[in-house]
Amino acid sequence: MSNYKLAGSLAAVLLLAGCGTNATAPQVQDLSFNRQQADKPVSYQVHRGDTLYSIAWQHDVDFRQLAALNNIEAPYNLRPGQTLRLSAAGDASTPTVASSQGATTSPLGSSSDDTDDSWLVTSDAEDADGAVDASGTLPPAGQPSSSTVDSKGNDVGTAVAGETTAEKPAKQQYSPVANVAWQWPVKGKVVGDFTQSRNITAGIDIAGQKGQSVKAAGPGIVVYAGNGVRGYGNLIIIKHNDHFLSAYAHNQSLNVKENDVVSAGQTIATMGNSDADQVALHFEIRKDGQPQDPLNYLPDQA
C-alpha cells in the first residue's frame, strides 16, 4: 500500500472516531456480578414438607427477609404450589448501570427504594458467641412484623406446607436464648473446612461412624426436619434465636420433627451419608441468613 493510501485510510478512521464521540460519557451495563448469579432463581414454588426456614436456607436468604418479601406472618403458613418471591426487585442480583467515570446509578428499571434492606438491623449488643439483644429487631413500617414469639416470649414454631396443623403440644415451649453456648454436634476430625472450594455448601464436615449420635449444638426449636433441601440429604435445621440457626446434614435417621424443642447436647439424629459420598456430618451455622465458619463459634475439642 502506498504512503498516500495509508495516510488516507488513517484519516478516515480518525474522522469516523471523532464523529462517534459526544460530550456525554456512555453508560455501561455491569454484568460481572449478574454472570455469577445467573443461575439464582427469583421465585420458588412451595412443595409439601417445606417450611419457610428450609426455603430460606436453600436460597441463602434470611427467613425474616423472605417472610417480609411475601407478607407472611409467623408461624409462616405455606401451601404446596404457592409461589414465593426470593428477592426484591432491583436487589444485588440485578445488573447496575455504571458510567465510564465509575459512578453507579440505580439498577435498570428500578427505584432506589427497591434495595432498602433496613428490615435487618444488627444489634450493637451482639457478639461473636451468638449473643443478641433479646428484644430482637423489626422490619420498617409497612412490612410484616419479624416477631416470632408469643405474648409469653415463647417461639411460635413453624407451619409445614401440606400439613393441616403444626404439631406443637403445650409442653413444647421454647423461649429463645440471647446467648448460644455452642458445643460440638459430634466428636471427630474435621475433614472439610468452611473455606474449601470443594464444599458446595458453606460449613464444615466432621468424620465419624454410621449410626453415631448427632447432638444439638445449642438449645432451640426444630424448624425443619426432612430431605427436601437439595444437597443436604436428611437434614435438621434448629433455630436458636431470630439471628442464629444451625443445620445438621447427611444424616442416616432423624430423631426429631418440626416444632420439637431440643436442649444442647440432645441426640437429634444418627450420622450417615444420605446424599453424600462418605459418612460425615455436615454442620453449618448461619447468622441473619449468612453462612458463618462454625470453628469461630465452637470451643476447642478436648
From TrEMBL:
Source domain of life: Bacteria
Residue ranges that the Swiss-Prot or TrEMBL entry lists as coiled coil: none
The UniProt record lists the keyword Ion transport: no
Domain LysM: from-to ranges: 42-86
Cleaved signal peptide residues: 1-25
GO cellular component: cell division site; cell outer membrane
Any Pfam family hit: Peptidase_M23
Region (Disordered), start-end ranges: 89-157
Family as reported in the entry's similarity comment: Belongs to the E.coli NlpD/Haemophilus LppB family.
PANTHER family tied to this protein: MUREIN HYDROLASE ACTIVATOR NLPD, PEPTIDASE-RELATED
Name the record gives this protein: Peptidoglycan DD-metalloendopeptidase family protein
Organism, as annotated: Larsenimonas rhizosphaerae
